[in-house]
Amino acid sequence: MADVARIAGVSHQTVSRVLNGHPNVKAETRTRVEMAIDELGYRRNSSARALVTRRTSVIGVVAFDPTLYGPASTLGGIERAARAAGYFLSVVTLQTVTREAVREAMDYLAQQSVEGYIVIAPLRTVVDGLVDLPYGRPVVAVEGGQAPDLPVVCVDQPGGAYLATRHLLELGHRTVHHVAGPHDWLESEGRVAGWRRALEEAGAPVHEPLSGDWRPREGYELGRRLAEDREVTSVFVANDQMALGVLRALGETGVRVPQEVSVVGFDDVPEAEFFTPPLTTVAQDFSEVGQRSIALLLSLLEESDSPGTAPKRDVVPARLITRQSTATPSTR
Compositional bias of type Polar residues: which residue ranges (predicted)? Predict the structure, then answer.
């Protein structure tokens, strides 16, 4: 910083004000300082800054299975929002999720002096592992369902499933079959709840959901079972990857989509509009989830400095995207 000040012909305090975006710096002076910074390739020493401010500007993130579209997109949204807010991320990715694994991950992050935690918590075991943590730092659970006494940011999973199911019922289908996600996933629970509510409100028959593992192979196997039932005219699938498997299974068995069976997915993956046929699905705004997660965590950090009231739950609306995989029913 002293070198930058010398080249720019200003004090090191002025350099500090420019770096911190202080408004009381003349435009000409700010330009000279910025040119000196570029010439020297100056970057702040985050360790030295942390010693002075006692703030590391590092947020710890515990993530799960980045091979799945939802968790991976959520992590991407959090990273972009953190960078925009001037924070760094330290990420621990769990391949298997147990209460012990979650706590070990947070112990590891605590050693890096993170200011707070964001935990992508799609499984009930993850949420259970966050209760009564001893770390003394704020925690935000992303997709934490109805976790009591825990700050949560989540997509309206029941609402999205309700929209998908109502769409099929309004097209004239007598009922809607459901290919659900794994039993212990909170997102799966929410989507089952929204699907069931829409059917019950309409007085439609409620068949037992078929549970899969989020992946296309499982959707394919369950789709073959659905293809054998000639009473099936519409299917709500809990994610687009399984919906891809269902579409292939129906096609291989000679069932036409949407003429004979309508299919709706969930997630709106980038490839969904290029499925055959293009998939009607429910979109989740992962960028908005990331922004609200960071905003909630920062509000909790401010609250720890000066007591106040921060929102404890923030729900991001889901949105139905209608494409060519749904239509009015016809006789199979």
Answer: 322-332
